[in-house]
Amino acid sequence: MTGSAADAVSMYARAVDEARSRLVQLHRDEQQQIAVAAVALTAALAATALYEPLVVPLFAGGLAIGALGVRALWRHWDLVDRLADDRDAYGIPEVRAYAAREAQMDRRLLHAAQLRAWAHEPTNARLADVTDELDRLACALEDRERELDPASAIACRRLISDATASPLLDEARPPDELRAAIERILDGFDTPPR
Fold this sequence. Notes:
By secondary structure, this protein is an all-alpha fold. It has two domains: 3-92; 103-186, no CATH class. 71% of the residues lie in helices and 0% in strands. It contains seven helices and no strands.
């Protein structure tokens, strides 16, 4: 490995380690902030009987800290979701588990049903050129004997639900781009179709 390639791998490994540390910190923040909010709200409730002037400040503080906890929870989820697009981040157990949920059969069946609905929608002429490919992907998703790579499962979910990046949902994108995205997802299955 050349010096610059080794530096790139080292820099990327550092970025994954930083993402792992950030996830740990966000998880700690959400736990602490939600716990403090619960204590403040409980104290506000108790203050209604013990010392009424403390009710409003404790309640307001509890709500504010609770909002910070919800914000940390959202940021944590968003980081995991973004990391799920990067196979190298699957070294982080939380990211791998998140992506693996998308590869479960119940989610695959939902995605297959959605793909079939789009493929056979009579009013969508744009998808008429790719009906066979959409059907083939739907069949692969429904095949219980085939395992789907978690990264490909994430790509399938994004294909179906991400209006900003999906060639399926963005009408300005050409059918060839959609075909290529479907092929990349199909490459994530471990066994060839029968």
